[in-house]
Design goal:
Keywords: Hydrolase, Magnesium, Manganese, Metal-binding, Protein phosphatase, Signal. One of its GO terms (molecular function) is protein serine/threonine phosphatase activity. With 274 residues, this protein is an alpha+beta fold. The chain contains nine helices and 16 strands. The strands form five sheets. Strands 2, 7, 8, 13, 14 and 16 form a six-stranded antiparallel β-sheet that branches. Strands 3-5-6-12 form a four-stranded antiparallel β-sheet, with helices on one face. It has a two-stranded antiparallel sheet with strand order 1-15. A hairpin with a 4-residue loop joins β5 and β6. α2 crosses α4 and α6 packs antiparallel against α7.
Length: 274
Protein backbone atom coordinates (compact mmCIF):
# COMPACT_ATOMS: atom_id res chain seq x y z
CA UNK A 1 0.00 0.00 0.00
CA UNK A 2 1.33 3.45 -0.94
CA UNK A 3 0.62 6.33 1.40
CA UNK A 4 2.37 9.53 0.36
CA UNK A 5 1.91 13.28 0.92
CA UNK A 6 1.84 13.45 -2.86
CA UNK A 7 1.02 10.29 -4.75
CA UNK A 8 2.53 10.33 -8.22
CA UNK A 9 1.50 7.54 -10.56
CA UNK A 10 3.38 6.86 -13.79
CA UNK A 11 3.40 4.05 -16.30
CA UNK A 12 5.40 0.87 -15.69
CA UNK A 13 7.36 0.06 -12.58
CA UNK A 14 11.17 0.07 -12.51
CA UNK A 15 12.34 -0.36 -8.93
CA UNK A 16 12.20 3.03 -7.23
CA UNK A 17 14.09 5.11 -9.77
CA UNK A 18 12.61 7.22 -12.46
CA UNK A 19 15.41 6.24 -14.80
CA UNK A 20 19.03 5.45 -15.29
CA UNK A 21 20.56 6.39 -18.60
CA UNK A 22 24.09 5.47 -19.51
CA UNK A 23 26.33 5.31 -22.54
CA UNK A 24 29.33 6.58 -24.23
CA UNK A 25 31.49 3.90 -25.85
CA UNK A 26 34.81 5.38 -26.90
CA UNK A 27 37.24 4.37 -29.62
CA UNK A 28 40.19 4.26 -27.23
CA UNK A 29 38.66 1.30 -25.39
CA UNK A 30 38.23 -0.58 -28.66
CA UNK A 31 41.92 0.04 -29.36
CA UNK A 32 42.71 -1.63 -26.02
CA UNK A 33 40.44 -4.58 -26.90
CA UNK A 34 38.04 -3.60 -24.11
CA UNK A 35 34.27 -3.94 -24.49
CA UNK A 36 33.12 -0.54 -23.19
CA UNK A 37 29.57 -1.80 -22.64
CA UNK A 38 30.67 -3.92 -19.68
CA UNK A 39 31.55 -0.90 -17.54
CA UNK A 40 28.29 0.95 -18.17
CA UNK A 41 26.18 -2.15 -17.62
CA UNK A 42 27.90 -2.97 -14.34
CA UNK A 43 27.60 0.64 -13.21
CA UNK A 44 23.83 0.53 -13.73
CA UNK A 45 23.52 -2.91 -12.20
CA UNK A 46 25.28 -1.63 -9.09
CA UNK A 47 23.01 1.42 -9.06
CA UNK A 48 19.99 -0.86 -8.93
CA UNK A 49 21.53 -3.02 -6.22
CA UNK A 50 22.21 -0.03 -3.97
CA UNK A 51 18.65 1.27 -4.17
CA UNK A 52 17.76 -0.57 -0.98
CA UNK A 53 20.67 0.97 0.91
CA UNK A 54 19.29 2.37 4.17
CA UNK A 55 21.02 5.74 3.78
CA UNK A 56 19.70 6.17 0.25
CA UNK A 57 16.20 5.24 1.34
CA UNK A 58 16.33 8.17 3.75
CA UNK A 59 18.14 10.77 1.65
CA UNK A 60 17.05 9.76 -1.88
CA UNK A 61 20.30 11.24 -3.19
CA UNK A 62 21.28 10.26 -6.76
CA UNK A 63 24.80 11.65 -6.30
CA UNK A 64 25.39 9.33 -3.35
CA UNK A 65 23.98 6.46 -5.37
CA UNK A 66 26.40 7.24 -8.17
CA UNK A 67 29.29 7.34 -5.68
CA UNK A 68 28.45 3.89 -4.29
CA UNK A 69 27.79 2.35 -7.71
CA UNK A 70 31.02 3.71 -9.18
CA UNK A 71 33.10 2.49 -6.23
CA UNK A 72 31.65 -1.01 -6.63
CA UNK A 73 32.25 -1.21 -10.39
CA UNK A 74 35.29 -3.30 -11.33
CA UNK A 75 34.95 -3.47 -15.11
CA UNK A 76 37.33 -1.45 -17.28
CA UNK A 77 35.85 1.35 -19.32
CA UNK A 78 34.03 4.64 -19.08
CA UNK A 79 30.55 6.04 -19.55
CA UNK A 80 28.50 9.15 -19.37
CA UNK A 81 25.72 8.70 -16.84
CA UNK A 82 22.55 10.32 -15.59
CA UNK A 83 20.59 9.09 -12.58
CA UNK A 84 17.34 10.56 -11.32
CA UNK A 85 15.28 9.67 -8.27
CA UNK A 86 11.75 10.69 -7.38
CA UNK A 87 11.13 11.81 -3.83
CA UNK A 88 7.84 11.16 -2.09
CA UNK A 89 7.21 14.91 -2.22
CA UNK A 90 7.17 14.78 -6.02
CA UNK A 91 10.63 16.32 -6.44
CA UNK A 92 12.82 14.77 -9.12
CA UNK A 93 16.49 14.75 -8.02
CA UNK A 94 19.10 14.44 -10.75
CA UNK A 95 22.85 13.75 -10.91
CA UNK A 96 24.51 13.82 -14.33
CA UNK A 97 28.08 13.38 -15.54
CA UNK A 98 28.77 14.04 -19.21
CA UNK A 99 26.51 14.67 -22.16
CA UNK A 100 23.47 12.54 -21.46
CA UNK A 101 20.40 14.73 -21.36
CA UNK A 102 17.06 15.15 -19.65
CA UNK A 103 14.10 17.27 -20.64
CA UNK A 104 10.76 17.79 -18.95
CA UNK A 105 7.89 18.57 -21.28
CA UNK A 106 4.94 20.42 -19.81
CA UNK A 107 1.89 21.51 -21.82
CA UNK A 108 3.69 21.12 -25.14
CA UNK A 109 6.84 22.98 -24.16
CA UNK A 110 10.27 22.04 -22.83
CA UNK A 111 10.29 23.62 -19.39
CA UNK A 112 13.50 22.06 -18.04
CA UNK A 113 16.72 20.73 -19.60
CA UNK A 114 20.02 19.31 -18.44
CA UNK A 115 22.93 20.55 -20.51
CA UNK A 116 26.13 18.62 -21.29
CA UNK A 117 29.44 18.79 -19.45
CA UNK A 118 32.38 18.82 -21.86
CA UNK A 119 36.13 19.25 -21.68
CA UNK A 120 35.79 20.60 -25.21
CA UNK A 121 33.44 19.99 -28.14
CA UNK A 122 32.50 16.31 -28.48
CA UNK A 123 34.67 15.31 -25.51
CA UNK A 124 32.30 14.91 -22.56
CA UNK A 125 32.99 14.25 -18.92
CA UNK A 126 32.89 10.53 -18.11
CA UNK A 127 32.78 8.28 -15.11
CA UNK A 128 35.75 5.96 -15.62
CA UNK A 129 37.62 2.98 -14.26
CA UNK A 130 40.77 5.09 -14.47
CA UNK A 131 41.90 7.53 -11.81
CA UNK A 132 42.06 10.36 -14.35
CA UNK A 133 38.33 10.20 -15.06
CA UNK A 134 35.53 12.14 -13.42
CA UNK A 135 33.75 11.04 -10.24
CA UNK A 136 30.41 11.63 -8.56
CA UNK A 137 31.84 14.92 -7.27
CA UNK A 138 31.89 16.26 -10.84
CA UNK A 139 28.19 15.60 -11.40
CA UNK A 140 25.71 18.33 -12.19
CA UNK A 141 23.20 18.06 -9.34
CA UNK A 142 19.76 19.65 -9.52
CA UNK A 143 16.10 19.05 -8.71
CA UNK A 144 12.75 19.93 -10.22
CA UNK A 145 9.18 19.68 -8.97
CA UNK A 146 6.97 17.60 -11.24
CA UNK A 147 3.31 18.20 -12.04
CA UNK A 148 0.48 16.05 -13.34
CA UNK A 149 0.89 15.54 -17.08
CA UNK A 150 4.64 16.19 -17.18
CA UNK A 151 6.66 13.97 -19.50
CA UNK A 152 10.30 13.18 -18.74
CA UNK A 153 12.53 12.38 -21.70
CA UNK A 154 16.10 11.36 -21.01
CA UNK A 155 18.77 9.74 -23.11
CA UNK A 156 22.33 9.56 -24.32
CA UNK A 157 23.85 12.14 -26.63
CA UNK A 158 22.91 9.91 -29.55
CA UNK A 159 19.33 11.02 -28.95
CA UNK A 160 19.75 14.75 -28.43
CA UNK A 161 22.47 15.17 -31.08
CA UNK A 162 20.06 13.86 -33.70
CA UNK A 163 16.60 15.14 -32.69
CA UNK A 164 15.38 18.70 -32.17
CA UNK A 165 13.20 19.67 -29.23
CA UNK A 166 10.16 20.24 -31.43
CA UNK A 167 10.48 16.72 -32.85
CA UNK A 168 10.60 15.32 -29.31
CA UNK A 169 7.52 17.31 -28.32
CA UNK A 170 5.62 16.14 -31.42
CA UNK A 171 6.44 12.46 -30.89
CA UNK A 172 5.56 12.58 -27.20
CA UNK A 173 2.23 14.31 -27.90
CA UNK A 174 1.30 11.90 -30.70
CA UNK A 175 2.31 8.64 -29.00
CA UNK A 176 -0.33 6.58 -27.16
CA UNK A 177 2.05 5.74 -24.31
CA UNK A 178 5.56 6.15 -22.97
CA UNK A 179 6.89 2.91 -24.43
CA UNK A 180 5.69 3.87 -27.92
CA UNK A 181 7.19 7.34 -27.48
CA UNK A 182 10.57 5.92 -26.41
CA UNK A 183 10.67 3.53 -29.35
CA UNK A 184 9.66 6.24 -31.82
CA UNK A 185 12.30 8.63 -30.49
CA UNK A 186 15.02 5.96 -30.66
CA UNK A 187 14.05 5.06 -34.23
CA UNK A 188 13.96 8.69 -35.40
CA UNK A 189 17.34 9.36 -33.79
CA UNK A 190 18.78 6.29 -35.52
CA UNK A 191 17.32 7.41 -38.86
CA UNK A 192 18.71 10.93 -38.52
CA UNK A 193 22.10 9.64 -37.34
CA UNK A 194 22.80 7.97 -40.71
CA UNK A 195 21.32 10.75 -42.84
CA UNK A 196 24.19 12.71 -44.39
CA UNK A 197 21.77 15.37 -45.67
CA UNK A 198 20.11 16.08 -42.30
CA UNK A 199 21.17 19.33 -40.66
CA UNK A 200 21.18 17.89 -37.17
CA UNK A 201 21.56 19.58 -33.77
CA UNK A 202 25.07 18.08 -33.73
CA UNK A 203 26.11 19.61 -37.06
CA UNK A 204 24.63 22.98 -36.12
CA UNK A 205 26.57 22.92 -32.82
CA UNK A 206 29.75 21.85 -34.62
CA UNK A 207 29.52 24.81 -37.00
CA UNK A 208 28.92 27.18 -34.08
CA UNK A 209 32.16 25.88 -32.53
CA UNK A 210 34.14 26.58 -35.71
CA UNK A 211 34.06 23.15 -37.34
CA UNK A 212 33.06 23.16 -40.99
CA UNK A 213 33.95 22.00 -44.50
CA UNK A 214 37.16 23.35 -46.14
CA UNK A 215 37.04 26.95 -47.36
CA UNK A 216 36.94 25.94 -51.01
CA UNK A 217 33.80 23.89 -50.41
CA UNK A 218 32.26 26.89 -48.68
CA UNK A 219 32.83 28.86 -51.88
CA UNK A 220 30.65 26.29 -53.61
CA UNK A 221 27.91 26.77 -51.01
CA UNK A 222 28.61 23.63 -48.99
CA UNK A 223 28.50 23.37 -45.21
CA UNK A 224 29.00 20.73 -42.55
CA UNK A 225 25.77 18.77 -42.17
CA UNK A 226 24.66 15.26 -41.29
CA UNK A 227 23.59 13.26 -38.27
CA UNK A 228 25.90 11.74 -35.68
CA UNK A 229 26.23 7.97 -35.53
CA UNK A 230 26.40 7.06 -31.86
CA UNK A 231 24.93 4.90 -29.13
CA UNK A 232 21.27 5.77 -28.63
CA UNK A 233 19.42 5.23 -25.37
CA UNK A 234 15.98 6.69 -24.68
CA UNK A 235 13.92 6.75 -21.48
CA UNK A 236 10.43 8.24 -21.26
CA UNK A 237 8.20 8.58 -18.19
CA UNK A 238 4.92 10.41 -17.70
CA UNK A 239 3.25 11.68 -14.56
CA UNK A 240 -0.35 10.48 -14.77
CA UNK A 241 -1.81 11.92 -11.57
CA UNK A 242 -0.69 14.08 -8.69
CA UNK A 243 -2.81 13.94 -5.54
CA UNK A 244 -2.12 16.01 -2.45
CA UNK A 245 -3.96 15.95 0.88
CA UNK A 246 -6.75 18.50 1.18
CA UNK A 247 -5.27 19.70 4.47
CA UNK A 248 -2.46 18.73 6.80
CA UNK A 249 -4.62 16.37 8.80
CA UNK A 250 -6.76 15.14 5.94
CA UNK A 251 -6.77 11.87 4.09
CA UNK A 252 -4.26 11.17 1.37
CA UNK A 253 -4.73 9.12 -1.74
CA UNK A 254 -3.63 5.50 -1.42
CA UNK A 255 -2.83 2.95 -4.08
CA UNK A 256 -3.09 -0.80 -3.62
CA UNK A 257 -0.68 -3.31 -5.11
CA UNK A 258 2.92 -3.31 -6.21
CA UNK A 259 2.92 -0.56 -8.84
CA UNK A 260 3.82 2.28 -6.54
CA UNK A 261 4.89 5.57 -7.80
CA UNK A 262 7.68 5.21 -10.34
CA UNK A 263 7.96 4.02 -13.90
CA UNK A 264 9.75 4.23 -17.21
CA UNK A 265 9.85 2.82 -20.68
CA UNK A 266 13.24 2.24 -22.26
CA UNK A 267 14.13 1.74 -25.89
CA UNK A 268 17.67 1.79 -27.22
CA UNK A 269 19.43 1.36 -30.52
CA UNK A 270 23.12 0.75 -29.90
CA UNK A 271 25.70 1.15 -32.62
CA UNK A 272 29.42 0.32 -32.76
CA UNK A 273 29.23 -1.83 -29.65
CA UNK A 274 30.64 -5.33 -29.58
Amino acid sequence: MLSLPIAMLVEYLLLQMVFQVILLSTDRWAEKDVNPALFSRELMRNSSNFLNDEELQVNRDPQSLLMKAHAATSSIGSATVIIAMLEKTGTLKIASVGDCGLKIIRKGQVMFSIYPQEHYFDCPYQISSEAVGQTYQDAVVCSVNLMEGDTIVSGSDGLFDNIFDQEIISIVSESPGVDEAAKALAELARKHSVDVTFDSPYSIEARSRGFDVPWWKKLLGAKLIGGKMDDITVVVAKVKTVAAPEDEGGDIEQQQGDEQGIAVAVASAEQNEE
